[in-house]
Amino acid sequence: MAAGPGSGPVFAAWERFVRGEDQVPGVRPVVAISWHRCREQYRVDPHLPAAPVAVAAGDHTLEHDAVFAELGFRAASVAHEMGNLGGVVTVTDATGRILGEWGDQATLARATEANLAPWFCWSECAAGTNGMGTALEAHGPVLIRGAEHWCQAFHNWVSAGIAVRDVVTGDPIAVLNVSCWRRQLPASAGGRLANVVAKTQRTLKRRARDSGAELVAAFTQARARAHEPLAAVDTAGKVVIADDSASVLMGVPASTPAVDSTLRWNPRLPELIGAARYASKQAAQDPGWVGSTQIFTHLADEPTSISIRPVFSSGHLIGNLVSFGATDGAQLPPAHQPAPARQPRRLVATRANRMVLLRLAEVSFAESDGNDVWLCTGQGRLRAATPSLDKLDDELADAGFLRVHRRYVVNLSRIREIERGPKGGLLLVMEDGPNEMVPVSRRNAPAVRRALDI
Question: Which of the four pLDDT bands, split at 50, 70 and 90, describes residue 190?
């Protein structure tokens, strides 16, 4: 049986944190970081009585629909085992909306009291810390027990979730979750979920590799007759391959697709990404559609015209060919500027089993190292709670931080000196001392000069 929801050190820490305290010793870092998001970023009411109704469904690709179908099929088989143990299995989409639920009938009836049922939303921003919502935020399996849930109404539950993620972008597609009421999950539950998700990820990786190879083939064929700079991007706007001229405009490697075609490059051009997504919607209605617009590129002070031509494989859209300097096709409507995201007041890091809250001014730079992001601070190197450097870059883009290298984001106010590096690059000497030097890639050097007005 799980510990009572109104007792124990975790519940006592939850009470203190809800009242506004920051230090929660004895609480696992993944939970403490989630609580911080719920309180500071999402402002979720910890006394919410049940999960809210999901908003209208977002756009799902055919590939995502295939993932939902496969997970539903596999979840039904897991549910047979879990049903005998009093558990329920759910599948959600990337918004946390429950799509299907299976398991023990008595527990399913109990679950309806908390709206643990289809068409209700269990993302962290809607329902606080829980197995489904926190799995969407974190990489790897997530177990949330009793009072670790942000909302007190869910303290009787134990849940474990793991997300299926796009193998190219890393963005979540769906979550497979299992929940029990007032009892521990069986030790085998986590392994069963991870095995199901691993099989689904292998299918996604195979499809991404195939579509990447076909985009390279389409690029090669078009390049033979093209006169303008040319690139091939996937439906998310990530670059699969670009010629020498287009690579300079996009700030990505030239004409060298990765050995593993599931790996792509992020051009960091929001207008291009928006145009690629718009093209995907238009091509779904009219496969012969071709469009054009203007975007700002790297190293240019004036907008550049681009033409976008969708690429299909077996009737399925796999990406777009982008020609720079061309004006073929229908004009795209003016892009709507999204509302500026609320910048974080503090960054969250972890040290051992403790959560560390940092003011932005305390962070000199962030460095990506494999699957981890490290923050260089006055307190030393701390592991960032943010799961990727791309996401951290997005969060800090308007807060005085700049991406200067594929592995580094720097606090511009903490740069003390600039040295010339090899092959046209730069080296940034940070305030932390002469030993703290951050390389600037050649392609990012002009952006650094502009940001520092040098």
Answer: confident
Half-sphere exposure of 92 (CA within 13 A, CB side): 29
- For the chain, the distance separating the N- and C-terminal CA atoms, rounded to the nearest angstrom, is 64
User: How far apart are the C-alpha atoms of 111 and 117, rounded to whole Å?
Assistant: 7
Distance of CA 81 to the CA centre of its chain: 31
DSSP structure class, residue 68: H
Q: What is the pTM of this model?
A: 0.72
Answer yes or no: are the C-beta atoms of 204 and 166 closer than 8 Å. Answer: yes
Q: 295: domain range?
A: 226-331
Strands (E), 271-422: 291-295, 304-313, 316-324, 330-331, 346-351, 354-359, 363-369, 372-377, 380-384, 401-405, 408-411, 415-420
Q: Are residues 28 and 96 in the same domain?
A: yes
The SS3 call for residue 450 is helix
Cβ atoms of 54 and 119 closer than 8 Å: yes
**Residue 391 vs residues 259, 268, 454: alpha-carbon distances, Å:** 25, 12, 28
Cβ–Cβ < 8 Å for 303, 312: no
How many domains would you assign to the chain? 3
| Orientation angle between helical segments 62-83 and 189-223, nearest 10 degrees | 170
DSSP class of residue 425 equals -
- What distances in angstroms separate CA 372 from CA 42, 282, 369, 385, one per listed residue? 24, 37, 5, 9
Tell me: the pLDDT tens digits for 21-64?
888 888 998 899 999 999 988 999 999 999 999 986 556 666 67
Q: 380 pLDDT band (50/70/90 cuts)? A: confident
Q: Are 313 and 363 in a shared domain?
A: no
Specify the 3-state DSSP secondary structure of 289: coil
Structure tokens at 198: 């691993």
Q: State the Rg of the chain over Cα.
A: 24
Q: Which ranges constitute the DSSP H helices of 254-333?
A: 270-285
> Residue 142 is which amino acid?
V
Asked if 164 and 274 sit in the same domain, the reply is: no
CB burial of 229-254 (b: ≥16 within 10 Å; e: otherwise) equals bbbbbbbbbbbbbbbeebbbbbbbee
Q: What does the pLDDT read at residue 424?
A: 64
Residues 61 and 161 in one domain: yes
Does a structural domain hold residue 339? no
